[in-house]
TrEMBL record:
GO cellular component term, pick one: cytosol
GO molecular function, one term: ATP hydrolysis activity
Gene3D superfamilies reported in the protein's UniProt record: 3.40.50.2300, P-loop containing nucleotide triphosphate hydrolases
GO BP terms in the entry: negative regulation of cell division
Protein name: Chromosome partitioning protein ParA
Keywords noted in UniProt: ATP-binding, Nucleotide-binding
InterPro entries on file: P-loop_NTPase, ParA/MinD_ATPase
Domain of life assignment: Bacteria
Length: 409
């Protein structure tokens, strides 16, 4: 009889085992918040933190907290996929994210899965919710599931000729992503022997980190990789190494290894691939690893020809890579040999972003300013480029009577 009672006590104790994990719920409605509260209380799990689902509130919270599981309510969303693309960089890559929404579509589930997010269709019972959350937690403990697949998006700013402004555009992209969109960015310098990125990033007393490839052995881990970066601000770091001993191909492989170790700690890895830094290794990396290729060129024959070759290469070998074509005017339009129409005929596609010639650009940058948030005409196309990288829809600029009425409102 005593043995039976002991067995029952053991079962009872096991069933009351406390489950604890760090969880936050970004909610839009009181109804969803109450259901989450009731579900967690029903199961005896400590309540998650509750934060209003607003970009600024999400960004502020995740900076200060270590989040294992995040619940994101999008019941008021008109397009769940687009909204998650917009805020995905605000969420820590290490967290498992459960999106709650009312879109009953296979495409939504597929799109979110590709981004590394779980999807839970609303309305849902408290039993269904808590069971879903527990399964996600179990996946984390087994190091399985979608949360483990989310790493930084790789952006290559690729120069189609020397002197087309690749470094300037790359630095403006990371500044804009960090400042306006609160994304954690890593800028990668592929010029191992010179580079002006420290000037463009306003870094005082900058020196490249010495690459000690032969001596690292098994010490190449996340801590080591972080030590090889230079912090620009809370959301932006620079990876820039150099060596008087190692050859370029060795430094390339070394840099890529560091990037892989840092991928889970950043939202975006932006590579400054000026023409002078490109090798055959980079062409292979461009077709195999890059999520978005920002192809920068100027309206001269050699630059356009090189751009066409790169586009053909990507179309043939990397059809899933997003391509953004950026025409950068580095001299007055009258002095340029090719028109936009002639360029688009050669490329057989439209130019995505056109950056106008701005004579005061370098002075503005050297004086400590950024172009994306300046009053210069160059600011708007740079912001347009950043929005395209984020996958945001670009609204056409109003002109003429429509613009006049818009100002009058």
């Amino acid at each position: 009889m005593l043995d039976i009672l002991d067995s029952l006590n053991k079962v009872e104790k096991k069933s009351k085992e406390i489950i604890s994990f760090s969880c936050v719920a970004f909610t839009q409605t009181q109804e969803c918040r109450l259901l989450i509260e009731n579900a967690f209380r029903f199961e005896g799990i400590p309540l998650p933190s509750f934060v209003t689902n607003k970009d600024a509130d999400i960004q502020s919270y995740v900076r200060e907290a270590n989040v294992e599981i995040a619940l994101v309510e999008l019941n008021q969303s008109q397009n769940v996929t687009e909204d998650m693309r917009r805020i995905s960089h605000l969420l820590p890559n290490s967290a498992s994210v459960i999106v709650i929404g009312q879109e009953d579509a296979i495409s939504t589930i597929r799109n979110l899965k590709e981004m590394g997010f779980y999807y839970l269709f609303w309305p849902v019972s408290k039993e269904e919710l808590i069971e879903f959350v527990k399964n996600v937690r179990n996946n984390r403990q087994r190091e399985q599931g979608l949360g483990k697949k989310r790493v930084a998006k790789n952006i290559s700013v690729w120069g189609c000729k020397g002197g087309v402004g690749t470094s300037v555009i790359a630095t403006e992209i990371v500044f804009g992503l960090a400042d306006k969109h609160h994304a954690k960015c890593l800028l990668v310098d592929h010029d191992y022997y010179a580079s002006n990125l420290d000037i463009l990033l306003k870094l005082d007393g900058f020196e490249k980190k010495p690459a000690t490839i032969s001596g690292i052995g098994n010490d190449l881990d996340e801590t080591y990789a972080l030590s090889m970066t230079r912090k620009v601000n809370d959301l932006l770091s620079l990876l820039s190494v150099g060596s008087d001993v190692h050859q370029t191909h060795e430094l390339k492989e070394y840099t890529r290894s560091l990037e892989e170790l840092l991928a889970e700690q950043h939202n975006f890895i932006v590579e400054d691939m000026s023409k002078s830094c490109q090798t055959n290794i980079d062409y292979q990396y461009l077709t195999e690893k890059i999520d978005t290729a920002v192809l920068v060129f100027t309206p001269i024959v050699s630059s356009v020809r090189q751009l066409k070759k790169v586009l053909e290469l990507l179309d043939k070998q990397s059809k899933n890579t997003r391509k953004i074509i950026v025409l950068n005017h580095i001299q007055p339009t009258k002095a340029e040999p090719l028109s936009n129409k002639e360029i688009e005929v050669v490329l057989e596609r439209k130019i995505d972003v056109e950056i106008p010639f701005e004579p005061s650009m370098l002075k503005h940058v050297l004086d400590g300013g950024s172009l994306f948030n300046s009053r210069l005409p160059i600011a708007r196309p740079i912001l347009q480029l950043i929005s395209m990288i984020l996958g945001e829809s670009i609204k056409p600029r109003k002109t003429g009577i429509a613009a006049w009425f818009s100002r009058k409102r």
